[in-house]
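User: Can you predict the 3D structure for this chain?
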Amino acid sequence: MTSPARKHLERVLASRLIHSDQAAPGPSALPSPSPAAGMAVQMHMRLALDLRRLKEIKSVQAKVEAKRSMLPEYEAWIEGWFSALEQTGTAREDEIVGTMMVWKIDIGDYAGALALAEPILAHKLALPARYARDAATLVAEEIADAALTALGRGEAFDLTVLQKTESLVADIDMHDEVKAKLFKAVGLEFLRQAEQEANPDEKAVLQANALGALVKARALNERVGVKKDIERLERALAKSADQTAQDTGTAG
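Assistant: Here is the predicted structure, written as structure tokens:
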């Protein structure tokens, strides 16, 4: 485990290096004389070794646990990257930062992943080539898939994570199918909450929010699989409106 002093040094050197002329995506292009460059070489070598170790693990769950144990070793570097961003107002592509964003999604640290995703997307930074997809598509699809998997098991998924993801990718061009999955996840989480709500007025609000998101999902991809949910919500909202009208008439 990295000592506090080592973490502090990594944080300072990362901040110094990442936005300097010496910054580079990997160790081969980094000059060795400066302490910052030397630290960067060590960090990228560590990443290469960890990636090699992950490749040798067959179990998906074991990979997730391995990433969970590896991530703390890179937190100081990430903090240094954020420090450089705050100081300069610009972000620079970095293999470690991009990789850690993906790992944070993999281990379920969605808030941490989105904190990295926000500047990565705002500055239109590319992820390491091994990920194939652009950053926005990867973030939207992986979080949507995780949410749909949880919701399919009857479990809750943090709505703020879904809404934050939706906000981050709202103006970014990507395949309609990906955004459709994200809207579907938002809609189904609203629907899950509506089904547990006892207050009729609050329930109707949640149902309306669910319907709005699911309609957006269907508009982007008719085969996204929300037709029955939309029909069910439309019936429920119509019934709620009728009941409200009757109650109003009776009160009058």
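The mean pLDDT is 88. The two ends are 71 Å apart (CA to CA).
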